[in-house]
Amino acid sequence: MMLLTTGSSGPQTELLQTALNRAGFGPLTVDGVFQSKTRAALVRFQKANGLNPDGVAGPRTHEALMPWYTGYRTHTLRRGDTFYRLAAAYGTTVAAIETANPTADPLRLPIGGKLTIPLPFPVVSTQVRWFSEYTRLCCRGLTARYPALASTGEYGRSVLEQPLWQLTLGNGKNRVLYNASHHANEWITTPLLLTFAEQLLAAAASGGTIFDYPAAALLQESTLLLAPAVNPDGIDLVTGALENNAAYLSAFRLSRNYPDIPFPDGWKANIQGVDLNLQYPAGWSTAKSIKFAQGFTLPGPRDYVGSAPLAAPESRALYDLTLAFDPALTLSLHTQGRVIYWKFLNYEPENSRQIAMLFSRVSGYEVEETPYSSGFAGYKDWFIQEYDRPGYTIESGLGTNPLPLSQLPQMQKECLGIFVLGARVTADGVELAQLAG
What does the alpha-carbon distance between residue 295 and residue 258 come to, in Å, rounded to a whole number? Predict the structure, then answer.
C-alpha cells in the first residue's frame, strides 16, 4: 500500500476510508479523496492503536489497518478464551471462527496459540474502484476465512512485475476456469468475479444454496480456478492507482499515437500498449491484418496485437495456466453489452450452443457470434480451437467503459446463474435438459 496523506486521491484512499468505517472510526463517505474528515478519522484510529497520530497512512498504519482491509485478524489465545467469547468480542459468529480454524479443537485451545477471527463484514468491498494490491488482499482474506475451501497463489507476473493472482475454489473432478479484466477499463469484472467467489464460499460454509443449488455440493463436484485480474498494471493506470511515475508517463506517451481515444478511461491494453485479448494463437495474423487496416499499428490504449502471439507476459501466463489446469469450460468476463459470445470460426464444441442458450435464459443476455472484426486472437478463440471445448466471452453491463460501480449489483444478479451453471454443465452425470428445467 502506498503512503496516503492529505491531498491523496484514488482507489487506495477509497480502501482506507472503507477500512476506517469498518473499524468504527467513521462514518466517512467513500469518495477516494483524502481531506480533513478522513485525516481526523485516521488520527483517531492511530491514537486508539498506539501509533504516531500524524494523520498519514504509512507502513505501520497500513499494517494496523490490515484486518479491516482483509476481513480477518489473528488472535493470540489467552486463558479463558472460548469460541463463544471470541465471537462476542469481535462481533462475529462461532460458525465463522470454526470455518476459519478447521483443525482447532474448541475444547482444547492452547494458551499462546493463534486463531483466525473473521470480522463482521464482507471481504470484497463493492465501494472501492479496483487496484492491483487489492486483488492480493481479497484473495488473502477469502483463503483465511475459508481455508478448507479455497487457496491462492501467483501464476505469473505482469510487465511491472506485479503478481498475477489465482484463486482456487473446491476440489471436484470437474475443472472450470474463469478470468476477468483482460482489458484495463473493464476492471469492474474483477469485483464481479470475486464477489461471486465470496458468495459461493459463504454459502458452502453455512450449508446454504447458491442459485438454488447446494453450494457445498458444487465445490465437491467442481474445481473453480479464477484468474480475477489478468491485467493489473492496466487496471492501476485506469483507476488512478498507478503513481505518476515512469510507467504512467510511458503509457501517456503511447496514448498520443491515438489522440481520439480518451486517456486513461479508454485504455484497454497492458502497460506497454498491447491488447492482451489479441495475443492468443488463434488467427493472430488475421487479427493483425484487421487491426492494422483499422489503423492500430502501434502500441497504445487498445487493439494493438503486439509483436507476436503471447509476447505479453500477462497473456502468456494465462495461456500456461490454462494448459496446466486443463479446464472443461472457460468464462472470460468483459464489459459491456449484455451479450454472450460462444463460437470461434467453424468450431462448435459439443453442447456449446445449448450451454450458451442456458446462460442466456438465466441472465437475460443475448447469444451472438463474435463480429468478424473482433473474432480472432482472443482467449476464448484460442481455448475453443485448442481444446474443442465450450468457451465463452460474457459482456456484462451497459454503457461506456469503464462502467461505474453503481452497475455492479445488477451485473452480479445477471451473472450469478452463469457462474453457477458454468461450474456444473460439464460435470459428470449432469444433464443439460435437467439444468434447463
Answer: 9
Cell digits of residue 275: 491488447
Q: One of 198, 314, 395, 414 is an active-site residue; which one?
A: 395
- List, in sequence order, every beta strand (DSSP E) within 298-430: 329-335, 339-341, 366-368, 391-396
Tens digits of residue pLDDT in 21-56: 999 999 999 999 999 999 999 999 999 999 999 999
In the numeric block, which cell numbers belong to residue 413? 444478479
Q: Is the pLDDT of residue 287 over 70?
A: yes
Known active-site residue 395: yes
Taking the C-alpha atoms of residue 116 and residue 97, their distance in angstroms, rounded to an integer, is 7
Collapsing DSSP to helix, strand or coil, 430 comes out as coil
Residue 330 to residue 344: CA distance in whole angstroms: 14
Please give the Cα distance from 285 to 279 (Å, whole number): 10
Rounded to two decimals, what is the model's pTM?
Answer: 0.97
Question: SS3 string of 8-71?
Answer: CECHHHHHHHHHHHHCCCCCCCCCCECCHHHHHHHHHHHHHCCCCCCCCECHHHHHHHHHHHHC
- Taking a C-beta distance cutoff of 8 angstroms, is the pair 333, 193 a contact? yes
CB 75 within 8 A of CB 114: yes
CA dihedral 206, 211, 213, 215 (to 10 degrees): -30
Q: How confident is the model at residue 437 (pLDDT cuts 50, 70, 90)?
A: low
User: Which three cell numbers, joined as nine digits, stand for 339?
Assistant: 451479450
Host H or E run for residue 73 = strand 72-76
